[in-house]
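Two quick folds needed for the group meeting slides. Do the first one here.
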Amino acid sequence: MGEIMRIYGTIRNSKNREPVKQATIKLSIEGTQIAFVSSDEHGRYEYAAEEEYIGQTLDFVIQKEGFIRKDISHEIDESEIKSDILLDEFKIKIQGKICDETNSPLDNATINFRIGNSTINLVSDKDGSFSFTVGQQFLNQTIGYEVSKEGFNIKSGKMKLLENLRCINLSKTITSVPDKSIWIKVVAVGIILTGVAIALFALPNDPELSIDPDPINFNFRHDTQAQTFSIWNEGGGTLDWEVRSDQDWIIVSPNSGTNSGTIVVSVNSAGMSPDNHMGSIILTSNVGTKTGRISLFIEEAVPVLTSTTTPTTTSTTTPTTTSTVTSTVTSTTTPTVTSTTTPTATPTTTSTVTPTATHTSTPTNNPPESFIDSINPSPALQGQSVTFVGHGDDLDIGDSIIEYKWKSNIDGYLNDQMTFSTSSLTSGSHEIILQVKDNHGQWSSEIKQNLKVKIFLYEDFESGMPENWLEGPTYESASYNVVSEIPRDINNHVLLGNGHVHIGPNIGQEWDDYSLQVRIKLLPKIGRCHLIIRQGDTNEDRWRYFIGISPDTASIFKTFNGEHYELTNEEIYLRNNEWYTVKVVCKGNLIKVYVDGEPVTEYIDDNPLNNGRIALETLGDGKVCYDDILVEELE
């Protein structure tokens, strides 16, 4: 037997789009494995199937050391399946600590994280510390946690990925924890790439009700399978909840629980009349209430039209040799059949017969509906990977969605899959459009959603020195280099400025209102730097604002017409060898500076510089590390 189906594609690194070789790809049909292949040196993989799987579900499991496992599925509607897949690296180191109520460290506390399809099991060390790494796509997300230790209350809640983690505090119990191996529920929401070096902080201890999906909006037909939603506690303490419906035909199970749970929603359409029935499910808890919308569409029975008439025969005999037989069939349509024969010496006989006729009408094909479920992140930076998720629905019995069409009013055609990711969107205000097509070839109307793709840049130096960055004035023995952050994190790369040196991207002269965010570390003994905004130059002149950062001062300066002006000077306190996030906002004539989210100085310029590039300048004999440079357009 020869090739009947071809399954192929390319595996690439989601960050730099480089091919990933020797990745393993497990292929399964409806849960049964059919092949196990590997990507070649160009990241390509291919499998020739000797059976036809049209109409079935093809599951991919892609794994590679150093990358996060990825699971995807395809509904097979043709004999050739091309699936190009992006893998996310394990790059980001997360560090945390478990403490008692007095902030004393607790060893041998159990923490288990589940991220995507990977489970991470952790135990705190003698200092109460734990650490693990996650892929860059989990940057800035919120993840749930649960911690257990014998003799202490189980604690669950959420942590946000930031720079430093305060202790997760456990309180003592009178009785020991009944189960020493607690599985952790983890919820990963809102994947937004804005930086690399991150850590965690715990949120308040009160329970907080969360559900997924939110809001609940389930549509059923008489043959629709049960649908589910999840409940979990985003805070601390105990979340008690109950679920009920306001219609007898809506069935929910279970009806109550504590903290987390999965609720199954089904419908019983027996004896119900054709109509679009509406109902609700109500989720009540000790901290709040949520409601969900449930619809059940029941079609009218397909009509069958029948007409029956008793045959009537009328005979007339005359001395003629011609006989005519006429048969008229009456139904929804009325064909007439006439036959003429000429027998010998046979009387004329006329007969009208109306037999039973049955006609079944063909139901009208209704167009399908398209839905955009999510566009993430939104807004996005130009060059950032954006994931689109949509689906289609067709209320006609037996109909299915066979094709998707994603478009942008700026970039045109985007993709033909239910979900996809792209990093090639043009900057601007996009109107994203989705249509779906059913198996009768009928397209849905367009559904639209707005997406802002912001210009400017993000740089984390993980791929070395950016190609479009140029050094400016450089003094003797001064330099910029991309180095590993030794000794703290050898896997994180930073830009090291050594001596009086100036560097920046060779783009952005047209930038006007924007923010510049940089993580900086001042190294002993005299680390100082300038963060430069709205810089421009001509043959005759050079202009810029520059924000001076030293261990004890934050200042705003201006250069114009060959003169330097100090606009503000405020006292601050920064420790050497510690990372700080400095953000400069320039909007109109306002310049405002923040350190770790706190405003430190600002200035309103009556004669403002209106546009220009960004740059970094290390001063004197000092050394400064820079990382995670983010420039965002302001609305």
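Then this one, please, same format:
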Amino acid sequence: MSTTSQRPPDGTPPDRARRGQGAETRRVNVALVGGPNAGKSTLFNALTGLHTKTGNYPGVTVGRSVGTCTAGDEAFAMEDLPGTYSLEPISVDEKIVTDLLSGDLAGVDAPDAIVVVADSTTLRRSLILLADVLALGLPTALCLTMHDELIGRGGSISTEQLATAVGIPVVAIDGRRSGAASSVIELLSTRRDWPKPVIPPPTRPDERAGWIESVLAAAAYRSPAQSSTTARIDRILLHPVLGTVIFLAVMFAFFQIIFAVAAPVQGAIEDGFGSLSDFVRQNFGDSALTHFVAEALIGGVGGVLVFVPQIALLFILIAMLEQVGYLSRAAFLMDRVMSLAGLEGRAFVAMLSSFACAIPGIMATRTLPSAKERLATMLALPLVTCSARLPVYTLLIGLLVSRDSRFWIFGAQGAAMFALYLLGAISMMISARVVTAITGRRGLLLPFSMEMPPYRIPAVRSMLLAVWMPVKGFLRKVGTIILFATVVLWALLNLPIQSAASMRAAGVNTDDAAAVAAYTMSHSVAAGIGHAVEPVFAPLGFDWRTNVAVISSLAARETFVATLGQMTAGTDPGSPADALKKTAFDGGPKAGQPVFTTPTLVALLVFFVYALQCMATIAALRRETGTWRWPTAIWSVYLVVAWVMAFAAHSIAVAVGG
């Protein structure tokens, strides 16, 4: 692939869709460029639907989204570029935009056409970016979003006069409504006829300011009045004290909803997998393949899939808060709080991204203009509670707290989940403060500015797309990493093969499937590994089975659930949760005593708050820092901190519980 598009001297893009005798059809590359909160990604989703491919730009980990759509007989590769206010970059992701548009990004073709997406309600600021783009000389069109909101708030604009003033095609849409994509597709179908400005915009700041004012005047642009509803709500939500209290209340309700709404669906899925496991055992004989399907696939992988409702609901709520406009307010509020850790509000945006996964959060640190805070933020972000921890927390909280238990008038399970998320966030800020103190990298905090969009009713389609992508990623992870780990663990839990004679000699009733499974696991390779590390984890109350599950989670946290799932599937496939509650030490001074006591469950929860159990996150830190020194150090430190904090939690729980 060439690094730049070859163009004729007049700048006309090459025909990428020549059809005829034996000509090969090629896609037209179209870049979507716009500022943050301009509606660019909403338009991208409307144009491409689910036909998108995500990844990274060559050599960096800035997220890349490319989708396809068709206009007439042409296919278009739409590229959703990171948001930027101009082509004078101050952060790495903004530099990606500038380099790609100018054809200087190695491994990526320059676009054949550009669609600048601008918010009609803040058009003056968007014209700065438009002027930079027009200076590139590429075929360009302007797409105005939030047009209905402009009119509804008393503003006005003539798109025809604006098109004449800037010298390029202009279309006005509301990207959240159906039909918005068709207007842009129709515009793309005429790309060969797009006009260009006779005179490009000036480059000197004073002259450009005059050009912007003349364009707005020529387009009869009238700025919209500030939304009175937004102003009234912001007086409350942005209050430094009341707003912070409301934010904490929103997050508390967030986790109450996750448990209250998802629990019935999760229970139904769990019952379904239990019935499926029973069916396999009853109808396919007592063979190794039957045990593999019932224990590894259904018990292990199925034990993780039961948490899909919680994960889907998590992202539904996040998408709703984002589209309503509340998350921008939360970032503004948290700027003061983040400053206590030597960070700024942009770090909170990265922190929000880490609720899905630490990797996009680490990537989001590229928006931080100061490298001093960037390193501290990315090294601290693994402590933010990601969706991979959610199945572990849900499982352990379910064992620790009864579903009927209440915290005042609220569900105790949701309160426990909120406490774990809050502990992760506080620990993240403490870690960032420690990193800046150790490295001596703290400097003056740069000013933080963030656009506050008006409050809007979420678009159902956009919310569904925002939920489907992470859920699809979770399902892909279950079908790859977790499945592979589950297969390996099943082999370790069943090898060496125990003969019927040896089991009878040990007093095992070979007609009792549960007894056979328990004996096989307790004499397996995995049991040997679990017993070998007992001196390390015994102070935390773990037995060899818990040790094996914790070790397996170092690759991916969800495998902790998968490991316990297939262990219990062998002894009680119909009710794995009850089997976990009944799990007892099978030897040593605690033989016969329950494993998952309150102190042990508390220790496990705290251990998972701090341990860095994700190889993909470590790889992302390696790419971002350019060295193994920081990822290795932070993995080791967090593992030690996890053990120390878990031991402290276990000791306190023992003391309190008598």
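Slide caption for protein two: The two ends are 68 Å apart (CA to CA).
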